[in-house]
Write a structure and sequence with these properties.
The chain is mainly β and 68 residues long. It has 1 helix and 4 strands.
Length: 68
């Protein structure tokens, strides 16, 4: 992952949906379920601008902005 050190990446957008399986457990009377992640969703992180070279290293990161 490229970007300034100490930066926490944020998700900009989803690129592909994931798939999960939810099964009701046999013999369960309370509706207990087992969830299995079959395919993880793919996402675009805000660090993509650094990987593509769209910003200078001196520019502040979108993730490093402080909200007042």
């Amino acid at each position: 992952m490229a970007g300034p050190p100490g930066m926490v990446p944020r998700v900009l957008s989803t690129a592909d949906l994931g798939l999960r399986r939810v099964e009701k457990l046999a013999g369960s009377t309370e509706g207990d379920t087992a969830v299995t992640m079959l395919l993880k969703p793919k996402v675009v992180l805000d660090t993509i601008v650094y990987e593509l070279g769209l910003v200078d290293d001196e520019d502040p990161s979108p993730s490093a902005e402080t909200v007042v």
